[in-house]
Amino acid sequence: MPMMLRGPALSLALAFGLFVAGQAFAQAIEPGKEGELANFIPPQSGARACFGRAYDAAHLKNHPKQQVTEMQFRIAYYIHDPDEFAAKGQRNYYFQILARLRDAQQGKPLTAMGECSVADDGKSIFCGVDCDGGGVIVKRNGADKVLVDLEALGRLRMTLDCGEDEANAFELTPGADDKRFLLSKMPQAKCPAYDDW
Question: Which pLDDT score, from 0 to 100, does residue 168 have?
Fold first, then answer.
């Protein structure tokens, strides 16, 4: 069953100055300073990419402690309307992770959303959830794959809807078989625009 997410788009008013495991929470990305982010998607209005994997029964049988059965990582470049602080519009890289869990009863996947910035190593990106919601380190793995590292930061706060009360949030944490996820690029037709997340 393909992942579908309904609900309003992520609020663009994300907190600044949050620090998670030594990484400053993402802020506006100045043109020409995209670094590794530009290798995921170019800094162009509407640019986006989606990566995913649904783990088959054989894989899950061989990894009985793995709780994630399906995952998607989406990244998009967004240019805000010009304002007094950014005459040409603030630029940001936003992300969304969708995940289904073993034995979960929910009809739709858990979701986490936030901003991305270049990680300290310069070769990967840090994608964090606002309000101390944890995050992941993501690294390209060849031309059409990414490695989503949950273990690097230790947790990712997820909910069933981006507008859902955080009191009902789920903390996805690394386990014996839930440390890193190798995801493959999805067809562009199955990769929704940022405004449709």
Answer: 72
Cα–Cα dist 124/35, whole Å = 9
Whole-number Å distance between alpha carbons of 52 and 144: 11
CA-to-CA distance for 18 and 1, rounded, in angstroms? 36
Residues in the chain: 197
Helix (H) or strand (E) holding 37: helix 37-40
State how far the alpha carbon of 67 is from the alpha carbons of 17, 165, 169, 177, 178, in Å.
Answer: 32, 23, 16, 8, 7
CA distance 148 to 157: 15
* pLDDT for position 1: 36
**Residue 7 predicted with pLDDT over 60:** no
Q: What is the pLDDT of residue 158?
A: 94
Q: Where are the beta strands (DSSP E) in the chain?
A: 19-20, 23-24, 48-54, 68-79, 91-101, 110-118, 125-128, 135-140, 145-149, 156-158, 170-172, 180-185
Confidence label for 23 from pLDDT (cuts 50, 70 and 90): very low
Check residue 12 and give its pLDDT: 28
What residues contact residue 50 under an 8 Å CB cut-off, 6+ apart?
A: 72, 73, 74, 75, 185, 186, 190, 191, 192
pTM of the full structure? 0.83
Judged by DSSP in three states, 188 sits in: helix
Nearest to 74 by CA among 116, 16, 33: 116
Angle at 117 between CA 114 and CA 120, to 5 degrees: 130
